[in-house]
Fold:
Amino acid sequence: MKIEGCEFPDDLLYDAEGLVWCRHDSGDVTIGITSIYAAVAGRIAKVSSKPLKVMYPTGTAIGFVESPKHFGPIRTPIGGVLLDVNELALRDPRKVTDSPYGEGWVARLRPSDFKTDRAPLLRLPADRGRFEKQIGSLRVRCFAAFPDHEMFEIGTECAAVLVKLNELLARVPVGDVVHLVTDDGTAPIEMVRWSDETGQPVIDERREGNLFHFLVHKVS
Structure:
């Protein structure tokens, strides 16, 4: 389910703040961060874990995420013993923001009382309003990917903006994502033309008031 552009699988359970999800699998519980937390943290540079084989009560930190603009805990929504941490997430923290419900899962716990702990957790679509309120209060903006670079070009003609975009893409590695913001009304048409000419895909776009947002993924 998408809420204000943010993705939330409806087969998961979520903590009261909508920041952490959990899935009950064959007795154990997999835990990760949500699109809301990923948007708040930004491009995560480091994921760390608390010690394994230790019992952690509901609401306590089992790990931490760190980015250039954020450092915060990952609080378990259920009590249990921390069995495992996703080594891929530790090695490549980008997975936690690029695939928070897939490869970017964070940890697995053996629950101590899952039936009791699950009762207050949020579910979709029933608790959609709670997620909408949290997204609004945190001023969260979710896109298809997290940008590595930002371009804010207000009051600049699109032709000049595209020159700057080409210059930036020439300097950055393949795989990086650029978030471009412009107020030029011709941008939607010009970005389609530019993408066709350069072969660099626009993977997300939206309009907010008089501003146009584009995500460009450098593929070559």
User: Anything to note?
Assistant: The longest helix spans residues 158-171. The chain has a mean pLDDT of 93. Residues 149-217 form a domain with the Translation Initiation Factor IF3 fold (CATH 3.30.110.40).
